[in-house]
Write a structure and sequence with these properties.
Layout: H1 3-8, H2 14-24, E1 29-33, E2 36-39, H3 40-57, E3 64-67, H4 73-85, E4 88-91, H5 98-108, E5 112-115, E6 118-119, E7 122-123, H6 124-130, E8 136-138, E9 161-166, E10 176-180, H7 181-195, E11 203-205, H8 213-224, E12 228-230, H9 238-246, E13 250-253, H10 255-265, E14 279-282, H11 289-299, E15 302-309, E16 312-317, H12 324-329, E17 338-343, E18 346-351, H13 361-367, E19 374-382, E20 388-393, E21 397-400, E22 403-406, H14 407-414, E23 420-430, E24 434-443, H15 452-461, E25 472-476, H16 490-497
Length: about 500
């Protein structure tokens, strides 16, 4: 991290960080979208006017404001306006519907809700009314406006809880994750330290800004003073045009994004997909080693993958100068200030980027051990060089006849099979074995039909132990995925196939 970025990383609050960046480089572009270029100075000024408009509506320091908005300039402006006021904001992914949104509004006791109106054919304003939400206002194009002279001083400290993020909530209700400005700045600083961007880079935010990765990425922009292209609805090949127009040098999001870029690259293998691109980076889901190797080999760019979660936006990250083996097989190293401890195979964390707990005190008590380390539920180990290797989730360990089997180990091998486009391995209830191993596979385009016999023969040849071989194969057109970072939803696969016996 250069001297300027390091100095800015000591900012006490997110608003302070924006002001300090705007003072240093007011005319440098910050956000690029739909032909618009918003400079750091303009972002600060517009956020302050929006803060004044919100203040006129009754928003005060500590007021809980929920917002369910897509990735747009206006969303970033509104979020910084709330940070200027010292309000408590609870971002909601735009794809969430009544159950999740209603739960979040009730649990957070939100007094206001910002929505996009009708977006992608769905009327968010009407949903808010059905839910009986308070203080509903639309913030897609027009934002509240006012005279900044009416505003109280900005918050002086960044250690108070001012953010409530939500875990994805699969088989149970979502958890409200409590963050401070300082924990978000720490997470973004970790990301920037690993990726080592420069002021000449052009980034991209192609995932929902309401995801914990939103402030993570924005902090990196503020630290290094480079812009990002905002993509409201990411799809390929449509997004390629805007990426090329702005000369995007940093792209990514998650493993699913890497695979999408690879699919497009393979349509014209002799021509660079994005000529200016130098680095794909992301996290949020496991990265099979073969995906790393394919990106480097076929796209001619570096790929660095990291490990984070809603509770800790950045834990480890691969660095561009790591060895190819470490970039392929590990999640990178933790930055200074992030303590990683392995207890009975589980990854536990302590540091400034770790959340302050959950809205429910009982969940907080359960999540942290007696020394203040967060129990992640992830399994892994540290190498001699300090790199973290993830081997799966506690709930992803398949126990077959008393033997523990790692789903990730099998998945990594399947990703190397030429007939496999993507794969998820799950454990299914079995009266005789306890659990049986089931592989659910998306086939690669043009590949011949994959059979259970052919798959197990391949896995045997790759050296997989016999007791780990899948006993069931399901071939699907598409694996079920979340709408944020396109993570495979294994719980849906378990629900779908738990009653099947092959």
């Amino acid at each position: 991290m250069n001297d300027t970025a390091h100095a800015l990383s000591t900012s006490r609050t997110l608003w302070d960080l924006l002001v300090r960046r705007a003072d240093r480089t007011p005319d440098r572009p910050a956000l690029l979208q739909d032909g618009r270029s918003v400079s750091f100075g303009a972002l600060r000024d517009r956020a302050e006017r929006t803060a004044a408009g919100l203040y006129g509506m009754g928003v005060r320091p500590g007021t809980v404001v929920a917002w369910q908005l897509p990735t747009r300039v206006e969303t970033a402006v509104l979020s910084f306006a709330l940070a200027r006021l010292g309000a408590v904001q609870t971002p909601l992914i735009p794809f969430l519907r009544e159950r999740e949104v209603g739960f979040a509004l009730r649990e957070s006791r939100a007094e206001y809700l910002a929505v996009p109106g009708v977006w992608r054919g769905f009327d968010h304003t009407e949903m808010a009314r059905r839910l009986g939400a308070k203080g509903v206002f639309e913030a897609y194009e027009d934002l509240p406006d006012g005279d900044p002279a009416v505003l109280p001083p900005p918050p002086a400290q960044g250690t108070e809880v001012r953010w409530i993020y939500w875990t994805s909530g699969t088989t149970s209700e979502p958890k409200g994750v409590l963050h401070t400005d300082r924990s978000l700045i720490a997470g973004g600083s970790c990301l920037a330290h690993a990726l080592r961007p420069t002021a000449g880079d052009v980034g991209s935010i192609a995932f929902p800004y309401a995801h914990i990765g939103g402030p993570d990425y924005m902090v990196m922009l503020l630290l290094y003073g480079f812009p990002a292209v905002l993509v409201e609805q990411f799809a390929l090949p449509e997004a390629l045009t805007v990426y090329r127009r702005h000369g995007v040098t940093l792209a990514g999001g998650s493993t699913a994004f890497y695979s999408m870029f690879l699919t497009e690259q393979r349509k014209q293998p002799d021509s660079p997909l994005l000529p200016a691109l130098r680095l794909l980076a992301g996290g949020g889901a496991p990265k099979p080693p073969e995906v790393y190797r394919a990106v480097v080999r076929e796209m001619g760019v570096q790929l660095t993958h990291g490990y984070g979660m809603t509770e800790v936006p950045m834990i480890t990250m691969g660095a561009p100068d790591d060895t190819p083996e470490n970039l392929a097989t590990t999640e990178g190293r933790p930055p200074e200030g992030m303590e990683v401890r392995i207890v009975d195979g589980e990854v536990r964390l302590r540091g400034e980027a770790v959340c302050r707990g959950y809205l429910d005190p009982a969940q907080t008590a359960e999540a942290f051990d007696e020394e203040g380390f967060l129990r992640t539920g992830d399994l892994g180990h540290l190498t001699d060089s300090g790199h973290l290797v993830l081997t799966g989730r506690l709930k992803d360990v398949i126990i077959r006849k008393g033997e523990n089997i790692s789903a990730k180990e099998i998945e990594d091998l399947l990703h190397q099979h030429p007939a496999v486009g993507d794969a998820a391995v799950i454990g299914l209830p079995d009266a005789e074995r306890g659990e049986r191993v089931c592989a659910v596979v998306e086939q690669a385009p043009g590949a011949g039909a994959l059979t259970l016999e052919a798959m197990t023969s391949y896995l045997r040849a790759e050296g997989l132990s016999v007791h780990k071989l899948p006993e069931q194969l399901e071939v699907v057109d598409a694996l079920p995925r979340g709408e944020t970072l396109r993570k495979v939803l294994k719980y849906k696969l378990r629900e779908r196939y738990s009653g099947t016996v092959k």
